[in-house]
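## retry 2 of 3
previous attempt timed out at serialization; input unchanged, resubmitting
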Amino acid sequence: MEEFTKIGERIEKIWRDKNYSEVSFPDIAAEALEEAELPKKFSAFDVMKWALRTSSLPEQKDLRGRFGDPPITIYNSLRFHVDVYFWLEGTTTIHQHAFCGAFQVFHGSSLHSIYDFEVEEPINFFTELGKVNFQKCELLKVGDIRKILPGREFIHALFHLDQPSATIVIRTHRSPLHLPQFDYRKPCLAIDPFFEEPNMIKKFQTVSSILRLNLAEADDLISEIIENSDFQTTFLLLSFVKDHLDNNKMNRIFSLQNSQQRFNKFLEVAVKRHGNRANVLPSIFHNQHRILEIVRRRSYITNSEHRFFLALLMNLEGKKNILKLVEARFPQFDPIEKVLDWIDELSRTKVFDGSLQNALGIDDFDHFDLIALESHLKNFTTEQEREFLKHSCDVEPTEEILKKVTERKKKLSQAVVLEPLFL
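## retry succeeded, writing output
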C-alpha cells in the first residue's frame, strides 16, 4: 500500500514541523486525505487482498477488532496511525473519541449524526447523567471527509447504509487528557464502554450462566446484586441482563415468559436502591430496545430503500428530521409519499424469525393505518382530515370514522418501529 505510506510520511513531516500539536492534527489529516484522493486510486477490497497476501502486517492497533469488521492498520508512526475500518452490519453507538484526526468514506455511504451532551450530574469518573442533544444529521458518500476532534468537541454516530462500507481513518494514539472515551445512551446517560473491573466481569459471566441454565433462583440472585451495587454497576448489569432477555429467540417465538415484565422487576429493585436517580433508566432501556428491534428487523430486509428508511428510524427522532433526509436522498420524490410507500411495503413484508410478523411488527396494519399516518405526516386539521377522507379515500368522515383514525394514530405512535415519526 505505497500510497498509504506516502500519505503517512507526508503527515509525519508536516506534523513534526508543527511540534506535534494535537490542535493542528485534524486539519493536517483532513487536508492530506483530500489531496491524496485515495478512494479514486484503490478499492476497499484491494486493502483486504493486501492484508491477506502480505507476509508481515504493520502492528495492528485494534487486534481484537472492537471497532470495525475488521479494522486493518496500514501505516504506523510513533504518534499516529492510518486504519481502514470495514463494516458489514450497520451502526456505531453515539460516542466521542480520546484521540483526534480525520476520516474519509472509502466505500459505501453513511448516515452521520452529530450530538452534544449537557452534564447535569456526574456520578463518578466513568458515568454521568445529563441531556443527549441531537444537533444535525447528514448523508456521507464516497470521498467525503470529516475531522475528528477529541472529547466532547465531537460526539457523533455513524450508520453505514451499504454492505460493506469502509472508512479510512487517520488518528493519533489515545490521549489520557481525553479519557474516558464516553458512549452516550439517549436520552440522558454518558458511560465509559471500556471500563473493566475483574470482580464485576466475573459476576456478569456467572449471571450469564444462571440465566442460560434457567436457574430457579436466578432472578433473586440478580436482584440481590442490584440491591448491593453502585449506580454504574447497576446500569451495566441491567444492560447485560436485558441483552440476554431480548436476544433469547425461544422466548420471542414461544412466549415462554414475559421478559419485559421480568426486566421491570429488576428496574423496581434499582429504583428502590438508587431512588430518583434510577428513574431515568426506563427511558434509556426503552430507547435501547427500540434500536435493537429495528436492527433485528433490518437484518431480514434486503431492499436498499427499506434498509435506508429503517436506518433513519433508528437514528433520528421527529418526522421533520426524517423527511429532510428522505428528500436529500430522493430529491425527485415527495418525501411523505415515499415514506408512506415504504411503510405500506414493509407492512406486507414478512420477517422469517419464527414470529411470522411483518417488518413493522404490526400484524393488524391496514388501510386505516395508512390514512392515519398520512394525516399525521401532513399535519391535517380535523377539517382537512374530513376532506381527505371524503375525496381522497372515498370514506364518509363520520365521527366514528374520525375517532377510529385518532385511535390508529395513538396505536402507531406506540409501535416500536414507527415511534420516531411521532416523537
